[in-house]
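About this split. The held-out portion is used to measure sequence recovery: a designer receives only the structure tokens and must propose an amino acid at every position. Recovery is the fraction of positions where the proposal matches the reference. Here is one held-out target exactly as it appears in the evaluation file.
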């Protein structure tokens, strides 16, 4: 959980490991959720919280608080990350959080960022499937110079073994049509953004 806009969708299960990044601690505790770990430089929170598991970092550091949080999760053996409080506010931090999604794919993990009416994920040389019944729009972007072997099925606009480039947003504003939707890439990484929270996905 970050310090950005809260989606209102977080419903942790008992087996989940909850990490608060800086001001995400205050957001979590305000909705009655106590994190298992709190990390950050605490410039957003304004204080180091009284919590049994706190990792405090200097403000001058290489990683963002969110990157520190996901790396701590990876070190503990987790490979699926639901990230909230990562959108809104400063645009540079929003971009950094999206880059954190691509970092997860390079570490063999998967992440989804939750927003008020949108979600974001990344897939590297793999496939994301949306279950039938999804509504709204979905956009697909190359996370690097090129993403090759891109296939889109079950959407209004389809692609078959196409190439997407970072400098041409041809994948913006596609639409779900109620069928199972498949987004796949053979080489490279895709950023996938969808509006409407009816979509259920599997990797």
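Reference sequence for scoring:
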């Amino acid at each position: 959980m970050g310090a950005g806009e809260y989606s209102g969708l977080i419903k942790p299960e008992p087996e989940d490991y909850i990490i608060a990044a800086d001001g995400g601690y205050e957001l979590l505790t305000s909705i009655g959720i106590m994190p298992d770990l709190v990390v950050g430089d605490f410039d957003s929170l304004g204080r180091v919280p009284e919590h049994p598991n706190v990792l405090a970092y200097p403000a001058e550091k290489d990683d963002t608080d969110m990157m520190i949080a996901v790396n701590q999760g990876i070190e503990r053996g987790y490979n699926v990350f639901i990230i909230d409080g990562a959108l809104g506010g400063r645009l540079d931090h929003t971009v950094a959080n999206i880059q954190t999604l691509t970092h997860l794919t390079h570490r063999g993990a998967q992440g989804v960022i939750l927003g008020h009416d949108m979600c974001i994920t990344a897939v590297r040389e793999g496939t994301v499937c949306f279950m039938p019944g999804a509504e709204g729009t979905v956009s697909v972007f190359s996370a690097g110079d090129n993403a090759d072997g891109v296939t889109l099925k079950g959407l209004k606009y389809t692609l078959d073994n196409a190439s997407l480039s970072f400098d041409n947003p041809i994948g913006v504003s596609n639409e779900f049509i109620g069928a199972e939707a498949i987004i796949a890439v053979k080489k490279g990484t895709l950023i996938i953004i969808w509006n409407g929270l009816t979509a259920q996905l599997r990797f």
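Annotator remark: Residues 91-106 form the longest helix (16 residues).
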